[in-house]
Amino acid sequence: MKFIKYALLLTLAGALIGCGGHGFEGEYESKAGSSNAFVDAFANSAGISQKIIIGSDYMESDGERHSFEEIFVRESGEEKYLVFKDGEDEVAWKIVDDNTLMQGNGLMNIKMVRVK
C-alpha cells in the first residue's frame, strides 16, 4: 500500500512540474528608455507606457491577444532571455531580474516591470 501512495505522489509531483510555465506570467508595465539622455527625457515626459499581460503561451496588449507556439527561458552564457517562439520566428527579451524584462538595443529599449 505504501508503494502505491509513493507512486501516486511521484506521478502527481511530475504532473505539476510539467504544468509549470516559464515563471514570467503576469501583468507588466512597459517604460521606454534610452542610453541617450535627451531621448530618455523625451520618452519619460511623453508618458509612453503600456500594460502587457504575459501568459503561459500568449501575450495581451491593447486588448489584442497574440498566441505563441511556445514561451520559454533560454540561457546564453551568463545572460537569460525570455523567448517567444511562433513557428520559425523567435523574439527574445533579456531577463534583468525575476520581475523585469528588457527589449531593444543599447540606443533605445523598453523595460517591462511586473506589477501583478
Poorly predicted regions are: 12-18
**What percent of the residues sit in helical stretches (DSSP H or I)?**
10-25%
- Put simply, the count of helices is 2
> What's the average pLDDT?
77
| Global morphology | globular
Write the layout of secondary structure elements.
Elements: H1 2-19, E1 26-34, H2 37-46, E2 49-54, E3 58-61, E4 64-67, E5 70-76, E6 79-86, E7 89-97, E8 100-104, E9 108-114
Question: What does it look like?
Answer:
24% of the residues lie in helices and 51% in strands. The chain has 116 residues and is α+β, with helices and mostly antiparallel strands. A hairpin with a 3-residue loop joins β2 (49-54) and β3. It is globular. It starts with a helix and ends with a strand.
Short description:
With 116 residues, this protein is α+β, with helices and mostly antiparallel strands.
Summary tags:
116 residues; alpha+beta; 9-stranded antiparallel sheet; 2 helices; 9 strands; globular
